[in-house]
Amino acid sequence: MDLAGDFVYVPYLLADGEQFLSCFAEVNPEDLDHVQSLSQDNFNLKDIVGGDLDFNDLVLIVETISI
User: Fold this and answer.
1) What are the pLDDT digits (tens) for 27-60?
2) Are residues 47 and 13 in contact, defined by beta-carbon separation less than 8 angstroms?
3) Are 22 and 30 in contact (CB under 8 A)?
4) What's the rounded Cα separation, in Å, for the pair 47 and 28?
5) DSSP letter for each residue of 1-67
6) What is the pTM of this model?
7) Rounded CA gap, 57 and 10, in Å?
8) What residues contact residue 21 under an 8 Å CB cut-off, 6+ apart?
9) How far apart are CA 66 and CA 55, in angstroms?
10) How far apart are CA 36 and CA 33, in angstroms?
C-alpha cells in the first residue's frame, strides 16, 4: 500500500468494534496512551480500558522504504 507524503501516520485500535484507542492519551477514555513506541518502526499496543498495562496485546512493526 502506498501512503501519501507530508502526513503523520499513527497507529490506533478499534477494540471490540467500538472503543477507539490511540497514542494520544487525551482522547482515550482513561487518559492513558494505549500505544508505546519502542523504536521508530516498532509499536506495542494495549487493547482494553483498564487491565494489566502490559502493552503486549498487539505488536506492530512497520517497514518503511524509500523509492
Assistant:
1) 888 888 888 888 888 889 888 887 788 888 888 8
2) yes
3) no
4) 12
5) ----SS-----EEEETTTEEEES-GGGSTTS---EEEEETTEEEE--SSSS-----SEEEE------
6) 0.67
7) 17
8) 12, 13, 14, 15, 28, 34, 35, 45, 46, 47, 49
9) 30
10) 7
